[in-house]
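Complex record, two chains
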Amino acid sequence: MRGVIMHAPGDVRVEERPDPVIEEPTDAVIRIVAACVCGSDLWPYRGVDEPQDQKMGHEYVGLVEQIGDAVETVKPGDFVVGSFVISDGTCPICSAGYQSRCVNASFIDGTVGTQAEFARIPFADGTLVATPEYPEEDLIPSLLAASDVFGTGWFAADAAEAGPGKTVAVVGDGAVGLMGVLAAKQMGAERIIVMSRHADRQALAREFGATDIVEERGSEGVVRIRELTDGLGAHSVIEAVGTQESMMQAIRATRPGGHIGYVGVSHNVELPGDRLFMGLVHLHGGPAPVRRYLPELINLVLERKVDPGKVFTKQLPLADAAEAYRLMDRREEVKVLLWP
Amino acid sequence: MRGVIMHAPGDVRVEERPDPVIEEPTDAVIRIVAACVCGSDLWPYRGVDEPQDQKMGHEYVGLVEQIGDAVETVKPGDFVVGSFVISDGTCPICSAGYQSRCVNASFIDGTVGTQAEFARIPFADGTLVATPEYPEEDLIPSLLAASDVFGTGWFAADAAEAGPGKTVAVVGDGAVGLMGVLAAKQMGAERIIVMSRHADRQALAREFGATDIVEERGSEGVVRIRELTDGLGAHSVIEAVGTQESMMQAIRATRPGGHIGYVGVSHNVELPGDRLFMGLVHLHGGPAPVRRYLPELINLVLERKVDPGKVFTKQLPLADAAEAYRLMDRREEVKVLLWP
């Protein structure tokens, strides 16, 4: 089969590799229906992380081809959406809803690689969720989004306790930030402020439910958010970048007692304890336990209550994966879907 | 009147200063019935913070002597317990329960100084809570504890979401940590692990409800807590020290999805973002909004359901304040009460 390999920063190729097979009784092998490029794939692409002939891709929807003897909740022919982290679904951490840190957790990225035609998914029962039937074609991008970008934005909004009467600020206008907007809107947030200086992303943010745009960055951005919130800061702040600057922006833009949901993969961040202490904020984040939310998110999509698939501003065949990376790296597209 | 002044590290004196008077219509002047020395008073005492002829003391119970024209909820003759932070009680931050970051907040420490015979308490309605009548004498230490050390331990346990079925770990066997034990016990925690290597504090911790003691520190301490929790870490961790080591211990001892309540005043702490991110923990802390909890804590004391006053292992007259600091600095006493 064909799949994407990143050999070195900027060097993305679609190459032949062996078809996956069932290795453990808890495995499923799926035919990938749609995959995509994640913002986090750009870290190795840009050389911030060091890729070494890495299988790429961790977002996916697919059709179950084969299952191991122990798999009970999905069967061949099922259309499935899966989390970007493998989880057994039964350990105490999974039971508490933190499947992304399951005691048997592993990241699909780098091991499985779903920018491909097929994938072996370990712990299929704990990782995959089947839809009742094969979905209508136009819903596939939104279901794909649920497997990471939408699920991660949803977790961020949940961790930030977005809800009725709340003002939510979103740091980061990438795909995850935009999904955070959609999630906050769906959770009933009263006001959603997005920090963005790109007209196309501002437009998409407004479409997803943003009420205010802040173009200023750093301290000026924080000042602007305070101005918009009676000098207090936002109740809820979604951080979707992962840098020192974005984390500090989030912390400083949150009112005392407020909540920060951070999902930008942390890179060289050091949080000053005294600032956190005096901020009296709640901080929660990390790799999103998407599996917890999948049943709910799939329903929202199938009932056409949300349309997270709009975050895919471009769709390409898998063969053009290198072009997909290039477009996202240059911020010419928000997020690119790949059809195998 | 007499009050404690710290002139320089280690230099604590009881000196005459003018009696406080009503300055604002929202003020109350109270006669201090009992005060005490806080662990945080030891930072300037040890020269970590720089004291400059600083009025000391922020924990207090007292009798209202005079009130300003705008004060409505306390009257002369009332016995009152107050928070260690002034709060107006009406701003949106106070209304949300975060009085310690009230828009008009100020720390009593350094400005008012309650290690004294009298104190002017600004925003009396928002800061003080009156008991129904003058309490029985033996309850006074416990009511005094509510004004900071018990209120802070309670906040830490609340922020750590201690409760039924939870394993709570407590980093720090100082007075606040011990109060965290008491709070966690009162909240119904199933198991309470205290990190301590001092026999006297271990005994007090057990008296307050600790079920396990861990003597190891640093990485070994974390390993020990993991061993006691099926390799997962505690559900809830109370951090009551404020150093880099103690914060990292708390973060590493918490299971994914677990909660850390941190109340040790942060000194030179830098939290690595990647460790926090992969930890997937909840982090909440800062100066405790004691005023939120005071009515509940006062009731618990008056109903004799808790006895936080036991944390005062020594009682001295105000005149011996220097000795009180010395005893606490040398860890010869857990906490010293001062009678003016």
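Note: Chain A has a mean pLDDT of 97.
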